[in-house]
Write a structure and sequence with these properties.
With about 475 residues, the protein is mostly helical. It contains 20 helices and six strands. The protein has helices spanning about 10-25, 35-50, 55-65, 85-100, 105-115, 120-140, 140-150, 160-165, 170-200, 205-215, 240-250, 255-275, 280-295, 300-330, 340-345, 355-370, 390-395, 410-445, 445-465, 470-480; strands at about 75, 80-85, 220-225, 230, 385, 400-405. The strands form three sheets. The protein has a two-stranded antiparallel sheet. Helix 3 packs parallel to helix 9 (about 170-200). The relative contact order is 0.11.
């Protein structure tokens, strides 16, 4: 199997992703299809992975980018929820173990030792296991424990990554990874534009489309007023890293006109969806990441930074214009007028806003629980009660009292579950990945690794306000990034 033997692999991948999304839409209205599709995709992924473990991994990469919460397909079997992400993960793990069995079990030991940060990684695994033991001792709900800890199972991704990319990822492997990621990101961005058009023009498919998006968790659509719609997809977290790496690729390579146009269109798509996400944590982290990029690359000439700033400005203006064109497109229905007030209001920080008020209400309650078990934590599945201003919570409980095991303040969430020393182990691993990328970029003088370090810094900032680095979307990025050291 060779991707590059196909005439246009980029377009083929986008077509396949479109097919998967259409099947997902169909299966949520005909649930009887869900188990058959999940079984089929499991078998396909397993067979591909047995033939080429790398291609099986690339399938998982594509699903992470387009799948958001991982439930493009979902089926409950004996009260156990099976999702597409879990099915692909299991198939990849089985194929990895069979690969080791066919070779030599000592191969796994050698490969893990090739992982540049295996010591801090094993320490982190130890604290996660400790968090599970604490949860069981404290009698936390078994269901809550599983739902809370299952994201950390994605650290097992180190197994196929080690077998494929260590001791050093090759240029051919990078090319295939960038091809899959680039195609999936392009599809993700096109899907965002499609959703904006459908909802801003209130087409007849809106009720069914909205129901599918909510059931599958693929996206959240919110009318913001002034003709604006918030199109938020969890996996949009990858847009800013893709933009940063794409921009620096554009500025550091001698591209022909056609290549420049393709990269620029890609950057506009990334920025357009970044704006449409209406995520203030994304916006803040992006600005800080670009600023930190200056520190990481202080040896460059001033012209490099000036071009960066000018391109970001031009791409932002083009992105806003593209959003305006989509909303105001006159067919098939005339959309309402477009006002910049919704966007400007999103830039303001008002303590009375429901989302912000809920976060600030959670903070003292979360901190109080942390203080009760400062060093050792309360284990996975630990619950915290606080007053939420979320309209969905208020609809069910007028006093707004809400109890959950999942929290927005992600680093504090980790602290509560695995304690101060566990959080410290996690932060050490993060910072060592960041340091390793910066060191590697200077040693090899590769701008792509510097851009990857800046992208990682972006994720670390977002994780302050929104849980990503304790989620498969963030953990997979951390593991992949560390393979570039």
């Amino acid at each position: 199997m060779h991707y590059f033997s196909i005439k246009n692999p980029f377009i083929l991948i986008i077509k396949l992703l479109l097919l998967i999304e259409l099947l997902s839409f169909l299966a949520y209205f005909y649930p009887i299809l869900q188990p058959f599709i999940l079984i089929s995709l499991f078998v396909i992924t397993l067979l591909i992975s047995l033939r080429s473990l790398e291609y099986g991994l690339l399938l998982s990469v594509a699903e992470l980018i387009i799948g958001s919460k991982g439930h493009l397909f979902s089926y409950t079997l004996f009260s156990f929820p099976l999702s597409l992400r879990l099915v692909l993960f299991i198939a990849l793990m089985i194929a990895s173990l069979i690969y080791i069995y066919r070779q030599d079990w000592r191969l796994l030991y050698k490969k893990i030792l090739n992982y540049p940060l295996w010591r801090p990684f094993l320490v982190l695994l130890g604290f996660i296991a400790f968090g599970l033991i604490v949860a069981l001792i404290r009698g936390n709900s078994v269901i809550d424990i599983f739902q809370d800890i299952n994201a950390w199972f994605y650290l097992a991704w180190i197994l196929p990554l080690s077998l494929i990319y260590l001791p050093k990822i090759t240029n051919e492997q990078k090319a295939r990874l960038y091809l899959i990621a680039g195609a999936a990101l392009t599809w993700l961005a096109l899907k965002g534009l499609f959703l904006l058009f459908i909802f801003s023009h209130n087409l007849v498919i809106v009720p069914d489309l909205y129901l599918w998006l909510r059931r599958s968790g693929v996206a959240e659509i919110t009318a913001m007023g002034g003709g604006w719609y918030r199109i938020f997809i969890q996996s949009q977290i990858y847009l800013a890293p893709a933009f940063i790496m794409g921009l620096w690729y554009y500025l550091s390579h001698n591209l022909n006109k056609q290549q420049k146009l393709k990269v620029y269109l890609f950057l506009v798509l990334m920025m357009t969806n970044l704006i449409m996400s209406m995520s203030r944590s994304f916006w803040l982290a992006f600005v800080l990441a670009m600023a930190v990029g200056v520190i990481f690359t202080w040896r460059n000439k001033w012209r490099f930074y000036f071009l960066n700033a000018m391109h970001v400005l031009v791409i932002t203006l083009l992105s806003l214009f593209l959003i305006f064109i989509i909303i105001k497109f006159p067919y098939p229905n005339q959309s309402s007028s477009v006002s910049m007030s919704a966007l400007s209001e999103r830039l303001e920080v008002e303590s009375g806003e429901a989302a912000l008020a809920s976060r600030w209400s959670l903070l003292p309650a979360l901190w109080s629980e942390i203080n009760n078990s400062f060093f050792f934590g309360q284990g996975f599945g630990a619950n915290v009660s606080y007053v939420s201003q979320d309209p969905r919570v208020l609809a069910q409980n007028p006093d707004g009292l809400y109890t959950s095991y999942a929290f927005e303040w992600a680093y504090l969430d980790t602290w509560l579950k695995i304690g101060f020393f566990g959080l410290l182990a996690f932060l050490v691993w993060l910072l060592l990945i960041l340091h390793g990328l910066i060191k590697s970029s200077r040693k090899e003088n590769k701008i792509e690794i510097t851009a990857l370090a800046i992208a990682l810094f972006f994720l670390m900032i977002v994780n302050i306000f929104t849980p990503y680095l304790n989620h498969p979307l963030g953990l997979s990025f951390l593991l992949l990034s560390s393979c570039f050291i």
